[in-house]
Amino acid sequence: MTAQLTPSPAACPGCLVVPRDAVDEAPQAARLALSLPGIHCQACISTVEKGLNAVPGVISARVNLTLKRALIEAERDIQARDLILVLTGLGFEAHELDPGVLAATQSDKAGRDLLMRLAVAGFASMNVMLLSVSVWAGASDATRDMFHWISAAITLPAIGFSAQPFFKHAWTALRVRRLNMDVPISLALVLALVMSLWETSLSGEHAYFDAALTLTFFLLAGRYLDHRTRAVARSAAEELAALEVPRAILLRDGVESEVAVGTLAIDDLILVRPGGRMPVDGEVVSGQSELDRSLLTGETLPVFAGPDTMISAGEVNLTGPLTIRATAVGKDTSLHRMADLVAIAESGRSRYTSLADNAAKLYAPGVHILSALSFVGWYLYTWDLRTALNIAAAVLIITCPCALGLAVPAVTTAASGRLFRRGMLIKDATALERLAQVDTVVFDKTGTLTAGTPQLTNLDDAPRSDLELALALAEASAHPLSRSLAQAAREAGISPAEITDIREVPGFGTQAQHRGVRVRLGRAAWVGAPTSAITTAWLDRGDGAPRGFQFTDSLRPGAAEAVQALLDAGKQVLLLSGDTGGAVEMVASRLGITDWVAEALPDDKVAKINSLTDQGHKVLMVGDGLNDTAALTAAHVSISPASALDAARVASDIVLLGQDLTPIAEACDVARRATKRIRENFQLATLYNVIAVPLAVAGLATPLIAALAMSASSITVSLNALRLR
Prior knowledge:
This protein is an alpha+beta fold. The chain has five domains: 15-96, 2-Layer Sandwich (Alpha-Beta Plaits), CATH 3.30.70; 109-228 and 352-410 and 676-722, no CATH class; 245-332, Calcium-transporting ATPase, cytoplasmic transduction domain A, CATH 2.70.150.10; 413-451 and 556-671, HAD superfamily/HAD-like (Rossmann fold, 3-Layer(aba) Sandwich), CATH 3.40.50; 453-554, Calcium-transporting ATPase, cytoplasmic domain N. Mean pLDDT is 78; it is low at 1-27, 103-107 and 231-237.
């Protein structure tokens, strides 16, 4: 689907905004792209579009729900950060994205093309079948010939248009001296048409125009079903590269200038304002702030950044301006190296061979050999080239993989429909086959097993006066712990204390004056409190020991049930997280996971999954962040929540549409049963050939028998697939 442009704005957690150096645009207008991974309904779209169109200078804005993206046309002086602030105010997290890096998003041309060819083949086959009924009913001589010629006039252009996908794929395979399922299909269609025209010109009784069209129709139906089970998959590596900030603020002799990131060099000084994403790897020269590393490392809480702190491209600056000295730019940044990891993992997983491909390897040469032997045998028996060619064509048509062409897509469509109703979207056609083989499940923590939002746990332990003071300080900050504390206090009916001279100290917390005394809410070291293994925000009341407000990361709905169900099914469950050891151990113990790893970098996760794979395990990876993207791609099969970053969702095979993790265990069971149905369909198709092939080789396969046999096999396979629903 293509995101278009028109007026209106939004509100949802998870948005990516991006400006582009539109050198080819009119000088007064610029195109900005926004990725909005959190939108999920028409209300979100409406809010986003209205909000963005209300910004002075925005000409038009349009949101595309399928791509979770918006395109904005605006005046030249509108910057990405302006729109980020608007979206943040509307409740959307915003990340800068470079639309120039993304490939132009195309509408589903392939699906529309297949549907159009299917419609033509269906319409033509119905008309030719009506003419064939007259022939089967006893029409003879000139009447029969007339019906055959009319059938030819309908069939030739219809086949020429509708069967193009099979012809193209067959030619592609033959050019590299390889066989695939489309080779016998194409050969059967061509031979059927040639033999039918020859027979018609000789006033023969049998023509295969109806069988050729019916075969094309059923195979196109299978091809279209197969296409519908796939999402329009964009490259995850491309999405990661697009997260690199397109422009940066360069400091030269104390003068700020906005330049393209591609022009930055090592040792350049770059200013990153609050809310901005780091454009390069580097070292903080001046300023104090906090960094959100959750998407890159999985760390739940923001980390302090001051002079000499090392930062990575893609991290988000939260509270104060930072001046960065670049130590790595362009392709040398950590974010770009992560994209390379994803690209390598993508190429590795593409080597998976599906059940259908394995069947084609055996089926295609077998059909050709059988047809050739039939031709040679009948020619030696009758010395009649016409009879031998007719029977060879009949063998190809009646053994053509109509049932095999439907065996996989019919099952995957039925299984995908069932899982969709349970809140899971299957993106890849082979995902179910791979999911059925899984024996090991690897979970990320932050945003996957947990909600990624802190929850206050000791509200009832604090006196009301402390809560009133903490609420007043917390409401002046955008820090995640402050927001959680403020929400919990408000829900408990607490009113804020009266404070004055309030200000936020970047990287430390908030402070104010209360009844002539300085009060603070923030980090332990700042207020003189002892460090704690538990996530804690400290309140300094100006007298006495600071009071700690403790937080924990809440579990996602169904997390405990999903893990238990997977363990009960005999699967090994691991937890890999970039978060600290204490936080990871706490979640692992709550869920009964004994095998866990903390502070894992993206390449550590990939290495662990590759190690499990080398040991013969089939790994399911469930994750949501940038630090999970390479691991999602490296795993045998992968799942990400709908709330995940775009790049993670693109890298995964299955998207979990709701918050509940319970369907993950059910998906494994449905996948196992779906694979069983696929194998049954192959067995049914084989049984059909065992019955039909002797008829064809014996010369008994008339066009009527061929059409009926193909239809019966296709219907049987489809009905078997529907048992999954």
